[in-house]
Records
---
Amino acid sequence: MEDRHEEIREKVQLLNQAARAYYQESREIMSNLEYDRLYDELVRLEKETGIVLASSPTVNVGYEVVSDLPKEQHPSPMLSLDKTKSTEELADWLGGQKGILSWKIDGLTIVLTYREGTLFKAVTRGNGEVGEVITPNARVFENIPISIPFKGELILRGEACIRYSDFERINETIDDTDARYKNPRNLCSGSVRQLNSKITARRNVHFLAFALVSAEGMEFTSREEQFVWLEKQGFQVVEYRAVERDSLQSSVQWFAQHVEENDFPSDGLVLILDDIAYGQSLGTTSKFPRDSIAFKWKDETRETTLKEIEWSASRTGLINPVAIFEPVELEGTTVSRASVHNVSILKELHLGIGDRIEVYKANMIIPQIAENHTKSDNLTIPQECPVCGKQAAIRKEKDVEVLYCTNPDCMAKQIKSLTHFVSRNAMNIDGLSEATLEKLVARGYIHHLADLFRLKQYRNEITTMEGFGQKSFENLMNALDRAKATTPARLLYSLGIPNIGVANAKLIAKACKNKWAVMEALTEEELSAIDGIGSIMAAGYRAFFQKEENRSVVEDLLSQLTLDESFEETEGQIFEGKTFVITGSLNYYENRDALKAIIEERGGKAAGSVSKKTDYLVNNDIESSSSKNKKAKELGIPIITEEDFMKML
């Protein structure tokens, strides 16, 4: 008995740890399949022993709120749902009743209150008893009605979620790129609970209503009737189907066929009794309502052979194991790789090359390893980073072992510098977004800047990457070929030397008559003598080229590039010694960069802000009340239009 009691304690602790990591810390320490297996084992043990701990996830709903948002007690506890993976059990549960079958949206449950036809309050589910007040954020959800026809008090529940189609784009806009979210559910949770609703507004959060709690003065007999009424009030209701026992199987099959094309993340289905009075008469258990049940997809598994473990480095320094196995068909698609998440899970699975493993798609979407039949445990954890080759070390973070690159200059940690290198004013390489660069680095195709121009050797691998095909690969190769022919000024700017912007790079190139060897060898004194280059810039420039690794990077780049070092003294340096600031929209020049280029070609400088050193402010709206116009007028600086500028030419 004592052994089983201890087993219960261990399972409770592990399940709570996994749930806390997923819901509060946006990370995973075990697969969904493993969590469900442990949970079911815990339920069995509790029934057999009669022992249920106060901290057990079978009797506790959720976890305490951890943000600084205002808290509010729910009038009655918001319970979770009992679940099954069997359509037979689902049919037995429904019996002779009519039910409503709908998506179980994987997002954040929200309770909305309307008074006098206006959104009055929005509160998250929280731990089921206490939620967080997020009213300002709910007002900027993509599809939520601020005003509705019904004027009585209305309380309803729904799921806030972010569509797959928005996820990648929104994820890239998060300011803290080191903390990017792994899936739409985590991104939604972070978006809904922002302290600044402006951030929430940019995240395209949607609200899908799934339950009417109360509507003052209204009486309904069926759930479907409630759904129809909510739609008339302007709410988007979760997609549903009315079912009876004989139609349940085909309806479940319909949802299963559409889950992959569904734009909203879903982790199963919900079946609720249509007859409201009958459902309410059944009451609740300590955790579950008796009028509804969740259906979790019975994961389709396939047995295959593990071919290798690919170690994928990320911008945070984490090096994550990815299992590569013989391709198998799962849920209608071919799968050949799955994340193992971290070293702890790798060890728990006792993985080894050649092992026979069971794989599945969590929620029919994300490939995971369910089980290892062979358990040869013959893997060696790498001691070097797969990207930079420097030391990799195992660290323990919140009881989870992770592999980490110790090199601060690792390319995987320098995605921003790589993004700068390919940007328009630098090497101008189309088709390489930050997300794409991160994938290429993680797979070990890019170790140094010059490796960008060697990507052709990975044609087969890249064309099978998600979002890449033969056409996009050819477009990328063409963009790289065009970028190989460049100028010393562009190359200099692309290196990302502190304080060396586009204009300064051009000044240095011009002073050296476009000779790269001269540019690279400039002393601090020579740099400071160039008009527009200060002592701080000069010191940073010199420090960059004094580093052996930086010189090696440049030498490697020069082996791939064709530098146009031709130079002609430009006639008509009419703007020599003059500084311009450009603001407002342009009518004649394509963009500000085009106008800046003309100014610099004629010997002038283009600055970003108005100061005593400014000679002209270019603004087509001379009477504008902008801060730059005001500053120019205060300092007596002429404000000229594009036409005035063109006359000066």
Note: The domain at 301-405 is CATH 2.40.50.140 (OB fold (Dihydrolipoamide Acetyltransferase, E2P)).
---
Amino acid sequence: MKKTVFLSFAFMLIGLQTAMACTNLIVGKKASTDGSVMCTYNCDGFGFSGSLSYSPSGRHADGELIAIHGWGPSHEGQYVKQVPYTYNVVGLMNEKQVTIVETTFDGRLELVNNEGLLDYFSLMRLALQRCANARDAIQCMAELVEEYGYNSSGETLTVCDPNEAWIMEIIGKGPGRKGAVWVALRVPDDCICAHANLSRIRQFPLESGKRKAESGKSISSKNFKKLHQPQVECVYAWDVISLAREKGFFSGKDEDFSFRDAYCPIDFENVRYADARVWSFFRHHTDPEEMDKYLPYLNGDFSEYDHLPLWIKPDKPLSLRDLQRDMRDHFEGTALDMTSDMTAGPWGMPIRPLPMHFKDSDSLDYFRERPIACQQSGFTMTCQMRSWLPDDVGGVTWFNCDDANMVAYVPLYCCITQVPDPFRPENNPRTEFSEQSAFWMNNWVANMVYPRYSMMIGDLRKAQNELEDYYFADQDTVLAAIKDLMPAERQSFLNRKSIDYANRMMTRWDQLAKRLIVRYNDQIVRRVGEDGRFLRWGHDTPGYDQQFIDAIGPATGDRYRLKEVIERRER
């Protein structure tokens, strides 16, 4: 008799339906300061509370099946065959340091096949449970959708292990057609890459050798057996071009085929809302003037440039902390800076309320910017994979719930078997505040800071840096402590460490929340003594940011002009 195993997606099953605006940043091992492969994920979508998913490793009997419960159509009684061994998965990294994260680009929605069994998140989780490296994961996902069908819209996947980073794009074949078309490219070791809800892969080398591709660099899915040859840096579905021809999406020569142009045509909105985030990341790590030549493209003028580079060589290697700062970006210091005009409000708030589009009283249409960091994040992670260390300590997911800009990243090791309480799904209810919830504690603080951002952000940064300084400084201590431990002892130690890190964050954020309400009560700023304690008497009234003050006159005329009032009285 077959034993049925239920594949549990503790990650907000309904919430991820709305997570259509995520961001991934990618760093090759020669582009990082220490040789790490790194990637990131802001999982953005209103209506769900973030938490950390977990599935344990295990051995499985012949004939075991997995019931699939995703957020797509109902598939009662439909299953995926289990494999003999599944890996421990913490969040989106498994015990072999394989990491898979995503962003949704939708693309041609007519290619969605609602009869397919696997949504993109089910696909990612299955691959993480089954695969020991990035190449295995790419092949696994391609074969799973071929066998069971795919029911999501267009996705860009980041697939990494301690040695390589890949970018993979996938979209269905349409109603009644099982499988998907896709292409995957290896990110050069000395480069950085990113994607943010817009297809990024255009032309790619073909197996036939066209486009003067180096021999053996590219293979189709018909030749998966060659995928593990180190020279292979591109693999694609055998019918990725022929399907586009059949559907009327492409009619040129094979060597001119562009995945993005065929399956995700661009317009002003998807470029500005999506590629602008990639542009800002690249701009941090190369000559800003070189990246600013793409500003017309971001403004909807595709006459000179109609795409960004897929990847670039950074001007210097990135550290993990550099990458964490990149995840907190609101275009500061650029032409799209969200803190530098009156739309930032009285206190320079770098976020904007939804909707993305709005009209003024004259029915003129406007839009708002969409940065990397945003208030609707359910969770954020920066993932580090280190080939020179044992897997159990080499793979670290720096994780927290809510807006990357407003939280401290907490290190969690890929081998842990206990999810820290603040990150457990049951402790992060969607509709009820809980002091045991990382999501709600972080939101408590963030939603105090947002409206008076320039006034209050310094207090948050102090707490954020204090925690992250401690976590980073403690990593050498961890490596020294596990050096002579047996595997079971190491896992127990790393469980305790991860739990301690999460609890430390919760304690510090509770202190921060209570300090903020006292210091900034009734829109004053209570003065602080040299010992850091509040003075019994004395406060400041900083008022509005200057950019907002400068906008008051043009908006209100003489209403608030004290000089005019005085002159009228004298007359």
Note: Residues 8-19 have pLDDT under 50 and may be disordered.
---
Amino acid sequence: MMNSSLSMQIGHYSTKGRKSVNQDFRGALIPESELLLSKGAAVVIADGISSSDVSQQASQAAVSGFLEDYYCTPESWSVRKATTTVVQASNSWLFAQNQRNHEYRLNRDKGLVCTLSGVVFKSTMAHCFHVGDSQVSLLRGGVFSSMTQPHRVNVSETESYLARAMGAKPELDIDHHSLAVEVGDVFMLCSDGVHEYLNSQSYVSLFNQYGDDLNLAAQKIVEHVYEQGSADNLTVQLVRIQALPKPQTRELMGRIADLPVPPTLKPRMLFDGYRLVRELHVSSRSQIWLAIDEDTNAEVALKVPSTEGRNSDDYLDRFLLEEWIANRLDNPHVLKPYASKRARNFLYLAFERVNGCTLTQWMADNPEPSLDRVRLIIEQVAKGLQAFHRQEMLHQDLRPDNVMIDESGTAKIIDFGSTFVAGVEEISPSTEPMWALGTASYMAPEYLLGEFGQRNSDLYSLATIAYVMLAGRFPYGTGVGKARSRSQQRKLVYRSVLHPTRSTPSWVDLTLKTALAVDKNKRYQELSEFIYDLRRPNPSFVNQTRPPLLERDPVKFWQGVSAVLLTILLFVLAR
């Protein structure tokens, strides 16, 4: 199957062999170009167990279900998350069917049980997933190697059983393995009846003879193992990589990626069907204009590339990705794209107009908000972040400037220019350091070490916003942005949010302290945990002793130390 970005050949052969029924099942799907870029091509094989008379039904359901459901998962998901989710769902369905049948429930070896192995080819990577004793192997440069290990427990020389299989247990442990693909690579997926009777030397020899025709090569491999005495079903799938794409995300964006950048914009100018009103914001990243749609009279926020970034492909890729992200998020606390029926003639983004102010301005107007008002805003922003996390995205630049508060008090996350998208990262890995995309004062410390973020990295930023709203300062002062090594970060000291003039409960301070731990492993792992503890006293926090004065009020602590030292000095002078 050919594509402008990826070219591969697939061949296969399957037979019942010496058995009365073929319980193997195999399948492959190479979707159209856009889906091929975002989700990749999938090749899958399943093998039923000999002791069951219905396991061929399990094999067919596992393969067919995967090829149908994998391409329904969000494009933003990584291959690992998508394959794991789909395979786990298929396993749950098979297990449930077995539980409903009395015979299968008492003896799983009689029910809907099978192995499952597959490879998803996405961009320049091969992502292998595996359960059971089928096999995925690779022939590269004349060298044959296996990418999977059989999940089989040997009881004796003649007796063994599957340790992992689809439908056998409610939970499933799946092996994952990824590697960079090279042109000329040949992947083989086969059932155990093949690989147990095929050594690497025989495989290489057969492939060298018949490899020009993959269907014929698959057939000859099956015939060889049959002659070697294999008594099982025999199935082989071969995949040869003919060409690989150049890693890039711009193809995801479609026609808009080829549009020219806008001309110099001015107030009252008619631009692509919009009447420009005024400039709302300008930065090194972009310019944002308030505009009126001439067709609908609706207010719209137009975002155009900055002058500095118009000649940078990396910048334009991230700029285009913002709309792609917005179109995949549907949450009242995330900025929505504006849907226009007109075709665009220039490179810009259109978003809903939020009547209100940034959280930065709101904080300036409300320097000492009540704890309840802080909770209300933080909880709304958390709901927006959860929408990102469900799509396997990290915002990575959460700060008051990137949160809008509208006239009704609704908080909305804006600006997705730093967002990490797992599925897109697999297509074109970022060459820019993670920490360079965000703002140091609100950035999780791990980014400053060059590490990848995770969900509680966004949580750290959210907790920092909550802290600043309550205290009017940062939890570690300005030290976090300067701490670029682990030794420097270990010296950072959290300053209590408690203050004599504000009635913040001590358990809220301990909640923030946990969310703001420099070590990401000591933080809350989920936003829901933080939000819950921010409103309801965590028993473990309530029972803790009051924080020392140094944490509660550093100024008062050092004033006290100075007073003691002065008293000692005066006493010495008097003597």
Note: The chain has three domains: 7-243, 250-352, 356-544.
---
Amino acid sequence: MNQMDRMKELVELLNRAGRAYYQEDREIMSNLEYDALYDELVELEGQTGVTLSNSPTIHVGYEVVSELVKEEHSSPMLSLDKTKDVDALAAWLGDQKGLLSWKMDGLTVVLTYNHGELEKAVTRGNGEIGEVITNNAKTFKNIPQRIPYQGELVIRGEAVIKYSDFDKINAAIEDVDARYKNPRNLCSGTVRQLNNQITAERNVHFFAFNLVEVEDVDFHNSVKRRFEWLTELGFDVVEYVEVTEATIRDAVKAYAARIEKNDFPSDGLVLIYDDVAYGKSLGNTAKFPRDSIAFKWADELAVTHLQYIEWSPSRTGLINPVAVFDPVELEGTTVSRASMHNISILESFELGVGDEITVYKANMIIPQVAENKTRSGTVPIPEHCPACGAPTEIRQIRDGRALYCTNDYCSAKKIKLFTHFVSRNAMNIDGLSEATLERFVEEGFVNDLYDLYRLEPYRMQITVLDGFGDRSYENLIQAVDASRTTTLSRFLYGLGIANIGVATAKLICKQFHNDLDAICHAPVEDFTEIEGVGEIIAESVVAYFQNPDNLHRIEELRKELTFEQEVVEEGNQTLEGLTFVITGAVHHFANRDEVKALIEAKGGKVTGSVTSKTNYLINNDVTSNSSKNKKAKELNIPILSEEDFLALMENGVPQEV
């Protein structure tokens, strides 16, 4: 392959990895792999003198894809040049003084204050255009709502979620497969939420790292003095130390020693000249400012040998490969395991038992396989599930292939079904965590969903379990009994039927007038008459009710439950026959679910996509160019702000609609 072809290949691969990372909050390659490929591309561009138009070396970030309002930054937000060599860092600093700080690993946010009030918050986006997240930023745990400075102040910083908060959030998610991969992904999704209540609950912190605009304040030409001033205003700034060429090596060592115990995610350090005028005089390259540079940790590699691949079944049937190797010391700790994520990644390393491999810790924390020097490729893909022994199959998922168990009654999947059934939006049974359900299954107390309502014979065995006692048992039984009276839509959702979410369950129950027998025996065409239910969903519902085991489960559950009617405002169905779509942030309601509940109570329907059957699109950003707005305009469907919607509710729907 010639140099130009290799450059094209690298550009495509790096851009694909960038899109996954920035737009979809997932990773298709490790930081180590990305850095190596990026450095190779830079070297080739230097050798050939050619930079391709879509090269990641000249483009910063990727277009945002959320429906948040977008806004152009007053000045481009460039990324930083980087090095992994401490000596190169010292040479870059030269005879200047600098400030060395953590390079936080979260989401960059720009804050604007005017007249002492937080006026606006915008994400970095693609470096030129970001997303407006002002309502969310106001819920950050450490952002001052008012400051004494009355002029315009624009600062940049990083929104991050602590490891301790990240662990608590994941621990509360009973479905292991639904847990977040890392704090950066969680923070990215949290900061860009359409419901800022969710943002508030996740303890986002903001650390300022750059003062962009301010008037009539003398900082004596010092970045340090800028940081001190921001601290005086109540902002947390990135932790920093003053360094010179003589002291920077020891400073880097001191930061490195704290990585393991640091509660905030970071992916390196940032060095900036303290002399503001000097830094500005250097200007920028097309991609990087010249007044600062990033230091990336030089990954410590260790050579070891693969012992075996452990196949770990999940609650959804996904079976994850985990490399188990001879223990080695990395970054001060002993490691012996590293996730291989999926079949595609596993096969790319051509692993075999006894192979000599190199391993490292991504960002000095997460164990990863870097290279397989032997490449014997002898690790077999299991043909049977390690949990239940049923046949496995390989399925295509996004950019790779993954292994799944084909048994609908796999013990791992059973726990998943139990967990879903007792969840808040389903039967809402408190006290039945995934761990408790797993224990009950192991002990033989429950084998099917209806057994949850027949625990009395096992009272003695349950009360002597670790963590249980008479009081815990009584609390559990009270929660179980409280769930005996429920709505049919909650029950239907709790059954775990493929493609049936909370909203679809409600639509089905409404269509069949809360008649469970009618739902169980309806043909496919009856379901496809429901707005938002297509052929695939209808077929999956009918297939579920055609399974004798499922019908038996339903009949046994009906013996234990009482279904109450959904609350409907009879005689006040002002929205009867109308279909709405709701998008974007809301201000007069707690969240979009509250708007939906009001519409449904008035006899209307709420669907997720704009079609020719939609009567109104509710979007506070009436003039935006979002996909839903564009579709509504194409179909001549009215777009309502919340105020428009409330006026419609008060004044009534026009007769021509």
Note: Confidence is low (pLDDT under 50) at residues 60-66.
